[in-house]
Predict the structure.
Amino acid sequence: MSIRQCATLSIFLFFFNISYFHLAEGGQMAILKVVLNQEEKGEFFVNVEDDGDFLVRIEDLKKVGFSEIPGKVSVLEGEEFVSVKSMEGVKTVFDEKKLALELTADPHLLGREIFTLRYHRKAKVYYPKDMAGFLNYNLTYFARDSFTYDSTVLTDQLGFRVGDFLFLSDSSYSQRKGDGGQFVRLMSNVTYDRREDLKRVVAGDFFASSGELGSTLNMGGISFSKSYNIDPYFIKYPEIGFSGLASLPSELEVYRDGVLIRKERISPGGFDLRDIPTYVGAGSAEVILKDPFGREQRIRLPYYFTDTLLKKGLHEYSYNIGFLREDFGLVSNRYNDFAFLGFHRYGMSDSLTAGIGAEASRRVLNFGLSSTLSVPWQLGVINASVAWSDSKGERDGIGGSVGYLYQGHNLSFDLLLRSFTRDYSNISIEATQDRTKYEASVGASYFSSTLGSLSLGFDVTKKYVGLDTKSLLASYSRKIIERSNVIANFKRDVKNRVNEFNISINYYFKHGITASSGYQRTDGTSSERIQVTKSLPLGEGFGGRAAFEANQAEPKNFNNYNLQLQYNAKYGQYGGEFISVNRAETYSFTAAGGLTFVKDTLNFSRPIQDSFALVKVGDLKDVRVYLSNQEIGRTGASGKVLIPNLGSYYDNQISISDKDIPMEYAVSEVMKYVSPPLRSGSYIEFGAARIQAFTGTLKVRVGQEIKPLEYIEFKVMVEGKELLSPTGKGGELYLENIKPGKYRGEFKYLDKDYSFDIIIPKSGDIIVDLGEIICE
């Protein structure tokens, strides 16, 4: 049956129901509106059988929403049809007046909708891999009383990226009055990130760790790790989810701690809610399902969320091998023992994560096990670790740690206990005499929206060799008014019988300005402090700090002053600071900036802290460019502006102001989402094409008569491409955005082929009149 025949039959059946039934009795094909569980799904071809059964194509049943089709299958004209009345769990009603086939199906037979509630990537994201580089510098000049020169420090960082490989190296040069200068290389490495499986390889200098009871060390060598930071939208920790069924089209609402976080219209069938966003600690989510008749179904989902667990089946690891670095920051290239450090964690289930850690050097071997367990009934999290060590020339050692944490809406509690035998060792403590016997801490906090937040704590450390400590701590905070709060802290050093108390009141103004005043008393001395700060803007602008502190102490009182001013300029960051402590004055002046390279373009900028982008908007000047809706700057004479502060791996929203685009220009888009790799430079182009129109009249000479070519189609070859265009009344033609030059045109008129030349002149006009073009 052709499309035209089907359309004719549909109209015929709509107006003449009696004829439809005559056809149905003959087992004919008809177009019926299909309604599934009271939700209209559209019109479909249905074969109406003599016995009142309805045969529907399997493909159409899937389009309607069935995932399982338990019915009798027939083949008609090479296509598979299913008998609706033979489908178990499906009831059928035919509405003669509406020509509608109404199906009521068990929700288990229908498809499932999946909703991911936490972070999700934008639909269209650009992942650049441009070759780019940058050089950061920071020069600080220090002076003392009466601006007497004291020292100068110059630090720099060089970064260069090619594809997935990043080279980074930083160093410092310092010079003091009366001394020669000293140059120190800091960290140098090459990093390779593989986005598809979140793996990272680092060759060079890096920091490595072997776990809670192990070491964290600076090494030179090779590191291989699973780094979830490569995709900040990947959820590695288990979050709550919910699966349900809806018999009718319904409205779904999801609440977290009483606050609506998602609202959806769902079709009949199953639905899955995944990664419901939660806060750290105990809480409650609620799912409300409302059907068309106003009936509600409420499902409460209590949870305890922690970001220390891994989802079931996920791995997290870091394996590091190389030479231990010594005197970092003082000497450039001092490496010593060859060593290995590593850890590996695995999500055994959503409530249990297990791990191992190990480290080895010429003198120490250390191996440990760890686990993180979510306590049933939303009662918190337990972390436990145990490690064994073997030191050259000493006996074996054992260390253990157990911690418990519960965070609720109002009440929280934490406990930590670590204990070590005298001979326990790892690489970081092997060369020291300081040995801990045990350390313990316990704390509790209570929060009330009316009373504020109060926390109490106690910690104690016992040493084999070294100083023991014992402290009591208490803190209190409360919001006073909308933009103000008060914070108070108390500490009692039980061992030395010293008390410390401080209290501060803070007020947060608009535009990043904060004012605070405070009082502090420690062991018989006291001080009062007033401070006003303004944070630096994302783009150009000022920031700074002004502080005054009055101290009452023996043998005499004194005042301290601090004044700092910073300015974010287009090509750098500049600042100065004045500090006076008990009449001893210090001055510093800083100039910092960056030099970037991307797409054959050098740019001066503020320091590059993460990634950067060179944005080009055609050749247009003074077009405003925004990052996350905050103005960064305006394009220069070449249509370019640099954004020095993109977030690596995040979907950065970069946009331009369409109000700054001249009327004679067109842009394809005004917003892009860009996800750059680590410490990279990207070239982001917003195409801005000047609109230039060419008009004229196309005519043909027939004998002695010249006639306008009205309403014909002609073609012009432009840069190897065929451009088709019609003429209008009087032979009017219209062309757009063609470069100056001579082009060949062709058309057919009265069964004859004609050709002609179009000469496009160089002109700054928006509309250029080409005059008459006469074809012979």
Q: What stands out?
A: The radius of gyration is 37 Å. The chain has a mean pLDDT of 91.
